[in-house]
Amino acid sequence: MKTGRLPIAVALAIAFNAPLALAAVPRLAGKPDLNGIWQAMNSANWDLEAHSAQKLASAWPFGALFAIPAGKSVVVGGKIPYLPEALKMRDSIRAGWPKSDPETYCYLPGIPRATYMPYPFQIVQAGADEDILMVYSYATSNRTIYMRHHMTPPVDSWMGMSNGHWDGDTLVIETTGFNGRAHLDRAGDFFGPQLKVVERFTLKNENVLMYEATLTDPQTYSHPWTIRMPLYKHVEPNAELLEYKCVPFAEELLYKDLELPKKH
User: Fold this and answer.
1) Which domains are delineated in the chain?
2) Which string of DSSP letters, residue by residue, matches the chain?
């Protein structure tokens, strides 16, 4: 008789615990509620692959203030699968940093880089089938995730065009239509205009959002590859997305050579 009770006990435990598991994730119109201000807590913007702490030779007057922090790879498998010629291009871009990095000039970061820059971003979600807005602190950039009426990119752009749908409790976003000018990090990692990014946002609990992005670009990579990282919610009572309008900080770098000579 005792052995006959075990399956019943297990079934009851599953039945009673299932609603508790669902209740642990906040919901909006039946879908996970992703509203909030989120931020990556890693050094992926420096380098998606594993890297040790390093000094910047050109920033020696600032000591440790502008050194590169160490970081683990967020690439599934560890390495980005570049084609041979693309790898040479990556190395050339890396050697030319910081002038070779669009971030230096406050250009839009592109996708997926906007997600893991060292600045927060906000998700604005109204309902299960409503379009979703993502607003980024960096360069006051933003993008709309079209959930009902999927759009075809009319022109190529820095941020591309994003169409989304729900796969169970995971928000899946496909972005195409890139101009190929954005980079993936400060280490020279890049992509071409044929890039397709498929992102997956999965809410683990009310304060942790799991993020994955799979990149497909047959002109740059030998096969599709994926990055994976958690995003953390800002929980302070006065949490607010503040603008980082960096264009004024880059104007002199961009246009210094256009200054008229000073009159003596």
Assistant:
1) 35-54+77-256 (2.40.128.20)
2) -HHHHHHHHHHHHHHHHHHHHHHTS-EETTEE---EEEEE-SSTTT-SS-B--B--GGGGGGGGGGPBPPB---BTTSS--B-HHHHHHHHHHHHTTTTT-GGGGT----TTHHHHSSS-EEEE--SSSS-EEEEESBTT-EEEEESSS----SS-BSS-EEEEEEETTEEEEEEE-B-S--BSSTT--B--TT-EEEEEEEEEETTEEEEEEEEE-TTTBSS-EEEEEEEEE--STT-----B--HHHHHHHHHGGGSPPPP-
